[in-house]
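Long-time lurker. I teach an intro course on protein structure, and each term I like to show students one example going from raw sequence to a predicted 3D structure in token notation. This year I'd like something fresh instead of my usual example. Would anyone be willing to generate the tokens for the chain below so I can use it in lecture? Attribution to the forum is fine with me.
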Amino acid sequence: MYFASGVIIFLNILLAPAAGFSQGNCSIAARIEGTVTDPSGAIILGAQVQVPNGMHVLSNAAGHYTIACVPPCEISLGIEAQGFATISKQILIHAGETATLNVQLAVAAVETDVQVNAQSSEVSSDAGNAVILGTYDGGLIEITTKPGTSTPHGAAFFTGSVGELNATDPFSLTATPAGKRRYGFELSGAILPRKADYSLAFERRDIDEFNVVNARVPGDDGVAAPLQQTVPASQRLWIGSARTGWQLGVNDTATLSFAANVNTQGNQGVGGQVLPEAGYTGLTREYDLRVGNTQTFGANLMHETRIGYSWKRTAQAPNSATPALQVAGYFTRGGATAGDLNTRERDLEVDDDIVLTRGRHTFKLGLQSLTVFLHNYDPDTFNGAFVFGGGSAPQLDIHGEPIGQTTTIDGLEQYERTLKDLPGGHPTTYQLNTGNPVVPIT
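-- Reply from a regular --
Happy to contribute to a lecture. Here you go:
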């Protein structure tokens, strides 16, 4: 007990001068200040600068730090910041002076494993062996792997939901067993060790959904009758890709890749007051072919050539080719006004660049050629469109003859008068477009 008390008293006596100096003798103390930067010269915010007695400060938004009261002697400063290597600097300071110590921190060495798959948020790359990852700060990291170095590996997957276990649409009178299935595989490996490799991927999605029609149509007795239908609206999507990389020389690699995306959606636009015949089937196809070649001439010079060719198609196939018919507030039937929409696009891009790095600077010089071929077939309202919105019309007797007075009728009565060829029976509007629906652009 007495020994422990003696140790405590001894430590208090030993540390008292330093503590007393930092608190009461700043008039004869020294001052240290400076700026903390990274290897590029950019300032580092929040870097910690610490002296041996435990006192520490943080660099501000300008990268500047100040230690106002330190004993005049040769001391060691420790500087550390997240993501940078910690360093120690010796400095000799004299009483009453202000010493300046600017510090440049090196980036810390980091070794990590990065797994890149189809679910990652990545920027698409033209080069098959290169993966370009976007960072939150707007930077890009391009990772290029040498062809033929990976071992064979792959994966298969399947997920799904049983439609019978899903809830029924509350607006539907019948069961709507919507379901989803997603399955596919990934496979990659070497064709020739350290010379060539391949990568294959395929995914299929079957989505079974339903649209609910809740409209009112003319009844046999002339009174609007409710019409409720549950209409399947399936979606079929498949995605595939294939890539191969070749090591043509020690510093010369070539890649070839192909990707496809096909999406088909049935009974689009159907639901609510829109009857099934007024819907359409949507089709979207996109194919992409890429060729790349990268040559490196030392650590500071690189030559890249990339050629890309893609073709896309967007099409709509209406369920009916008859004129569109809309009775406001009741139903919409007939053919879809978009008609046989068909847009085809071809894109050809060629890039040839030389990248030169000197110190903090990167220079890029090259040529870029982009050609777009567009064939747009848009027969909008070429099938005609009738709209019955109601309005003012002659008042009729029980025999359908005018009695000399006017009344207001709704769209359904206006439509029925048209069918019976009665006074006041005519569409509110009728639209028909004609001409050549093709617009080619290069």
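Some talking points for your students: Helices lie at 2-24, 411-420. The domain at 19-104 is CATH 2.60.40.1120 (Immunoglobulin-like).
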